[in-house]
Amino acid sequence: MDDYREVNRANWDERVPAHAASPDYKVAQYEQDPSFIGGVVRFDLPRLGDISGLRGVHLQCHIGTDTVSLARLGARMSGLDFSGPAIEQAQSFADRLGHEIDFHQADVYDAVEVLGEAQYDLVFTGIGALGWLPDIERWARTVAGLLKPGGRLFIREGHPMMWALDGSNHPGLITLDYAYFETEEPLIFDEGGTYVETDVEFTQNVTHEWNHGLSEIITALMGAGLQLTALEEHDSVPWCALPGHMTLDSDTGEWRLTHRPERLPASYTLQAVKL
C-alpha cells in the first residue's frame, strides 16, 4: 500500500515547474499585487470569516499559493506537502513575497509528528486533496491531532459524487463509472496532462486515487472528536472537472455543468471544530 506514495509523488514532482509557470496559478498576480487572494480562498471568504492572528496549517499545500492567500488574510501559516519540489517552490514563493511561512515536506499522515500535537487554531485543506489518501479515518485523526481544543477544520473539496463521474467515454454523456465510497484498492489512472494550462508533456502519468463518500468523511471527523459546524454543497468547481460538459462562469471563475447545473453537487465546503 505504501507504493501509492511513490507513484503519486513522482507525478506531482514532475508537475511542479509547469504549475508554477502556468497562468492558472497566477503566481505573477500574487507578485504584482500584495492584496491578491487566489480564487479557491476568495470563493470561501464569507465562510472563513476573520482569521487574523490564528495559527494555521495548510495540509497538502502543493506550491503554496493558497497558503499565501491565507497568510494575506492575517493567519500565521505553515504548509505541508509530500513533494520536495513543491515545498521548495512554495518556500521560495512565500519568501519572495515577504511572508513568514514555514513549509515542511512530509506525508500528510505524518503531520502531527512533524508539526507538533495540538498546535493549530486552523487546519485548512484545499480542493483536490483527499482523493490521494487511502484512509479517511486516519486523515481525520491527523486533523484532530493538529488542532487545539476549539480549533477549526476548514475544507473545500470536490464532491464525491463528481469524482464518481466520467465524461470522456461517450460523446455527450456523463457516466457513473467510479466508486463513490472508499475502497481498499485504489483507482489507477494513466493519463498525461494536468488540470492547468500548460504545453509541457509529462512522463510520470500514473496515479493511485481513492474516493470518500460524504458520510464517510463526516463520520470519520466525528469519530476523531470533531463537531460538524457547517456543510455547504456547491454546483461549481475551480477547474473544468468534466471537459466538454462544463462552462466557465466569468463572474466567479468557477466551472459548472453547461446544462442544468443544479443536477450535480460539484464541490462542498465543510467546517468542524475540535471538542
TrEMBL record:
Domain Methyltransferase type: 58-153
GO molecular function: methyltransferase activity
Keyword Methyltransferase: yes
Entry's Gene Ontology BP terms: methylation
Keywords linked to the UniProt accession: Methyltransferase, Transferase
InterPro entries, sorted: Methyltransf_12 (IPR013217), SAM-dependent_MTases_sf (IPR029063)
Gene3D superfamilies for this protein: Vaccinia Virus protein VP39
Transmembrane regions listed in the UniProt entry: none
Top-level taxonomic group: Bacteria
Signal sequence interval, chain numbering: none
Name under which the protein is recorded: Methyltransferase family protein
Lineage, broadest ranks: Bacteria, Bacillati, Actinomycetota, Actinomycetes, Propionibacteriales
